[in-house]
Each structure stands twice: as structure tokens, then as C-alpha cells.
Amino acid sequence: MSAEDEVSLLVIVVDVNPIWWGQQANREPQFTLSKCLDAVMVMGNSHLVMTRTNKLAIIASHCQESHFLYPCKLWKSGDGHGDDNASTSGDGKYELLSVANDFIAEEIKNLMSRTEVKGNQTDTLLAGSLAKALCCILSIKMHTGQEMKSRILVVKAAEDCALQYMNFMNVIFAAQKQSILIDACVLDSDSGLLQQACDITGGLYLKIPQKIALAQYLLWVFLPDSDQRSQLVLPPPVHVDYRAACFCHRNLIEIGYVCSVCLSIFCNFSPICTTCETAFKIPLPQVVKSKKKKLKPSTHTCK
Amino acid sequence: MNGKWNDCFLGLKIIQFLIELHLEVDSIKMDEEPERAKRWEGGYERTWEILKEDESGSLKATVEEILFQAKRKRVFESHGQVRLGMMRHLYVVIDTSRTMEDQDLKPNRLTSTLKLVEYFVEEYFDQNPISQVGIITTKNKRAEKLTDLAGNPKKHIDALKKAKDSTCGGEPSLYNSLSLAMQTLKHMPGHSSREVLIIFSSLTTCDPANIYELVKTLKALKIRVSVIGLSAEVRVCTVLTRETGGSYHVILDESHFRELLMFHVKPPPATSSSECSLIRMGFPQHTIASLSDQDAKPSFSQAHLDSTSGGPGLSMGGYFCPQCQAKYTELPVECKVCGLTLVSAPHLARSFHHLFPLEAFQESPLLLHHTERFCEACQGELKDKSVFTCPSCNSVFCVECDLFIHDTLHCCPSCIHSRSAP
After folding, report:
1. Binary contact (A239, B355; C-beta < 8 A)
2. Half-sphere exposure of B23 toward its Cβ, with a 13 Å CA cutoff?
3. Within 13 Å, how many C-alpha atoms sit on residue A266's CB side?
4. Global confidence as pTM
5. Fewer C-beta neighbours within 10 Å, C or N terminus of chain A?
6. Are B117 and B148 spatial neighbours (Cβ–Cβ below 8 Å)?
7. Membrane-crossing residues (chain A) (predicted)?
8. With contacts defined as CB-CB under 8 Å, which chain A residues touch B401?
9. What pLDDT digit, counting tens, does each position of B126-176 carry?
10. What is the pLDDT of residue A236?
């Protein structure tokens, strides 16, 4: 059994949009960003403890940057320094877990204190964080010679940003090609993009009814990997709306017209495509020439 | 002592690789200059001078350089603002004549070709989800259709797997296979790009009529024919591809064969004469019904009515055509009842990266970048000789991330952060 040799990598992408979390602190003071990160740390620790060869990475997705909370760059460059500086935890916790937790706490504090939200860019840069996660998975895969199974877990708080649609779809197709699952744990409002991502890559999508119980949902639903999921009874797949939105009104349509040059979708026929400005050939009804019939002289008379 | 032997062996491998590289460059230029001098007519090229030893006599630096170049070997030409033919109708003609039993490709040419065409079909539908492919085989001076033009990869892959057991014999016929392809392609709508890809291993062809007349007809119908030769350059193929605007290459070995096939996966630039039109398409909803729903009824899908393969035809959920309510299990498909093309929005989204191609990154040596020690995308240390910079956001990436970004991801991870893209 090659369970010892298989490396399983979990990348957790946490949405730390400061505006949403700030409003959340006013709405429900008992569930704040620190509670959310506690639950994520529990999930990360559990994953590392499941098998000795498991690996973990955590990315915080902000509205201006995506930052790797774990593993830390400085820690990777000089392995010796990390061990010297890390204080040994007094309660006998496994060193790896305590070091990881400390780093995550440190990094998130630095991240939230140093960034200031400027301008109207208040949307979480989820597509960018997922792109960085994919590159990171690829580089780790290349450095470990063994076969590696990887998956990404997205903990999403704020709403979708429609401007990121194309980048998001590129990332989803890249993940599908590399056989990387994308799971989604949504805290507040349903996200169509993440539903499509989970459907296309084969992951799980779950909208949590009670935010306080985040740790429980993460451990019960998202901790088992893809092989074990077939043996468990998990939340059923959601109905994904794959209808396209027309470019003129943004309505969801069932039958539409697609430009053959730029693939933009319209709900009504128009002679010029508004995106690429090509004039279309309008199919005219064919005119059939009627053949002249030669009349034979007939001899019958009407009665 | 052992090191020297290893270096010699590596040196021989490198010389072989360099010779292949030179031949490849020559073969690419082949169809541009029809009356060019042949390779043996030119002077000698001293390919061994590229190898240089350093002070200790080892070839390590040169070897690393060549391996690095091999990673960057792919020549991607970004078409920029050229219109591409997105909806493609492609026929693949596979030569199954006597010469395909030759064992210069392991285990024999036919098995190797069929395996690579399977891979080609998968990649083709990955990059061109709304296109169609058909397969034709030719042997014994006749041509027959293996599979019809269809948008579903499974049918083609099953047919290719079964074809591995077929026998090879006789001579191929270019005329018959091209006229068979032409019969279907001439009815295809004007906005789609009509293509034929011939995998030709024999050096002869047996035609019932003048093939140059057929070439004129193909040119008039705007069908683009490309050929991949397995043996050597054949003049009739050169003329055929030059007149119709396709490409002609002869393979060197199996990996070169794979590369040439992958070259045809990308959509070609559309000819100026192809028409642009609005295509009517349907976007059906996927209904997942379970037994607990009261209204759910199991039903047959249209695909199962025709197929002879076993398996339960009844299923609860599926895609229902918005015009005639016929059920299908997979997309994309053309509705058999009302003729509407059914696709889903992600299928169209797969082709968007062809319309907005990513610019090539600028290569620069590592020594110029003192401040950055980590790749922006994977957070790994920059260890290679050169790094790649995105021209829009000036972030630095390592070699592997650059390859991944351009081949699979099609968007720069840092540009997504700095500006909101459409």
C-alpha cells in the first residue's frame, strides 16, 4: 500500500476582505476574523496530523494583494533560523503545529495592519490568489519526486466580483487540467463562480448555515480527501446555473446568438457585433424562380 | 574517470540533439521556398563547435544551458490582433497502408500514430470546445470514414482504440480521402474554418483522376489541407499544402511527431474570405433530479437511442434542449430533433484566452535582479540562470512558472492583482 509514499497537499485560501469583516464585527460580534482563523488553523493542524507526509499552505486573499500566511518565505530560505527563533511551546504540542500557528498569527497581524484600503477597490482578489496557489502547487510538485495529490479549499466571505470572470474561468480550467480539486466553504452569500469551479473540477460546495460552527463544518466535510469522499455521505451537489448572460442586457438567456469572431453572446439578432464591430451577413430568404409551364392544348370542356 | 565518460556520453547526446534542431529549422522553412537547395548541396556546418569545455574539462555549464533552452523550446507566435477561426471542422486522414507496419516508431507506426491521435483529439476538444472532428482512414487504394464529424471526444477515442487491431495493406489514395472529406466539408457553414490534416507515411499515392484538379477545387471551397509526413518529403503534398494554405512537415522521431500534432491544436488565423455570422445556440440547464422528487421521471437521452453500446439508457437528470425539450447527457451537442447547437457558457469561456493572448515575458539574467529573490507566483527561490518579467506589472517569475502561465493558465497572476481585467 503506497499510503506512506503519497503526499497530499492542501492549500487553504481565506478571504480576509477587511470591509466585509469590519461589517461582520458589527453584525455578529461573536464571530470575527480571529475566530475564523482559529477554525482555519484547526483545519490546517488536522490535515498535517492525518498523515506524516501531508503538506499545507495558507493564502490570505485581500483586496489589494494575496499573501502567503504559511509557509513563510524567510523560513524557507534559512531553515536553521526558523528552529532557533521558534519558542518551544510549553504545553507539549507537536513542534510543527505550534510553529505553523505562530507564523500564521504573526503574518495575518502584519498583513491587516500594513494595508490600507484606498479607492473603490473593495473586492477580494480571489482569482489572483487561486492563480498563485496553482503555481505554488506546481512548484512543490516538481520539487518532491513522489506523486502528489493536491486540492484547494476556499473560505469565502464577501460577494463575487463580476469583473474577475475571465481570469477566474482561466484558473478553473487550469486546475481541471492539472486534476486539482477546488472546494468552497461559503460564509455569507452564494457565489455562482465558486459553484461553477466546484462543479467543473469535481470539488464540494457548501454554504454554511451557522458561521460559529465553521470549525465543525471544515473538519466534517472538507478534511477527507477525494478517495475517502466516495465512502461518506456528504452534502449533495448544488444545481449550477450554466446559462450564459447576454452582453447587451446581462440577462440570463436560454437561446442566444453567438458572434463567430469574438464569441460574444446576444439575445437578439443585430447586424453588427458591438464587441468586435464586424458586420454580419444576413441570411436572405432564397428566391425561387418559378418555371414556366408549357400548357398542352386540352380538349375537354367544362360541363 | 567516470565523470569523463559521462560527459562524453552527454556530449554525444547533445550533438544528436543539435543536429535534430538544425534539421527541424530546415524542415520549417521547406514550404516557404519550394526550389531551395537541398541540405546535402550546402556546405558543412560544424555543430560540435557549440560545445565548450570549462577549465576543469567538464561540459556541465554547456549541458545546463542546453537543458534550459530545451525547456524554452516551444516557439509560440502570438497572433496578436489577427482574427482566429474558432469554430473548426477538421478531418484527420490516417494512412493505414503497408508502410505503416514499419517499426521505426515503436512498436509500429500504426500503433504509435493512433495513440498520438487519441491524445490530439483530447487536447483539440480542450482548446476548441465548439469545434468538430472526423476521422478517415485510407488503404488498398480506397478511403473510408472511421467516424463522422462530431463534437464529442468519446466516440472518436473508442473508434481509435478499436482501429489498433486493423490490418494495414495496399497503397493509400490521397484523391479518394480528400474527395471523401470534401463531400462533407463543402456543406459546412461559411463562418467555420474547414480543415483536413493528413498523416501520410507512404511515398506513393494511387489516384483515379488528376489530383491537381482536385487541388483547384479544394482551393475554391476554402478547405485548408495540412500534411504530416512520416517518411520523407513528397512533392504532391508540398504542392497540395502550398496551394491550400496549410503546412507540411516531416517528423524526425516520436516526440517531434507529438509536437507537430500539438501545433495543429491551436486555432489557425482565419482567412479573409471566411464569413462572420451570428450563430444561434442554446444554453440548456442541467437538471439533477433525485428519486425523492415527486415530479422526476426517468427518461432516455437522444444519444442512447442510436448507440449500440450497452449500459442503462434511463437517467434522471440531463440537459433539455430549450427549443424542443429533447434530452441529452453531455454537451456540446447538436440537437437531432431541431438542429440547434447546444453548448454551456464555460465551453465558450475556454476559447477566450485565444482572443486575449498573454504577452510573452521578457527574459533577463538573474544577476540584474538583486532585490527579488523569490518568484512572485510560487514563492520559490529564484535559482535558474535567467528570470522572466511581465511587461505590464514588472513582476519576476521563474522558468517553470513562466511555462505554466503561458501554456495552461493564460493570465499573469500579478496583473490580476494590479488591475481589474474584463
Report:
1. no
2. 14
3. 17
4. 0.78
5. C
6. no
7. none
8. 135, 138-139
9. 888 888 999 999 989 999 999 998 888 888 999 999 988 888 888 999 999
10. 84
Select the residue of A177, A263, A283 nearest B351 (Cβ to Cβ). A263
Cell representation of residue A289? 424562380
Strand partners, B328: B319
Q: Report the distance separating Cα A301 and Cα B58, nearest Å.
A: 112
Contact criterion met (CB < 8 Å) for A131 and B411: yes
Residue B356 near chain A (CB below 8 Å): yes
* pLDDT, tens digit, 9 for 90 and up, residues A280-302: 776 666 565 555 555 555 555 55
B50: CB partners within 8 A, 6+ apart: B18, B62
Minimal CA separation from A107 to chain B, in Å: 15
Confidence at residue B71, expressed as pLDDT on a 0 to 100 scale: 59
* Measured distance CA(A298)–CA(A295) in Å, rounded: 8
Write the residue in A73, A177, A261 that is nearest to B83 by C-beta.
Answer: A261
Cell numbers for B348, please give them. Answer: 465558450
Taking only residues 76 to 115 of chain A, the set having a beta carbon closer than 8 angstroms to any beta carbon of chain B reads 76-77
Question: 235-254 in A: which are within 8 Å (CB) of B?
Answer: 236-237, 239-245, 253-254
Instruction: At A220, list the grid cell.
Output: 466534517
Q: How far apart are CA B222 and CA B123, in angstroms?
A: 25
Beta pairing class for B88-95 and B132-139 = parallel
Banded model confidence at residue B415, pLDDT cuts 50, 70, 90? confident
CA distance B112 to B3: 36
DSSP letters of A173-196? Answer: HHHHHTT-EEEEEESSS--HHHHH
The predicted structure's pLDDT at residue B243 = 92
Range ranked top by mean pLDDT from A275-284, B207-216, B264-273: B207-216
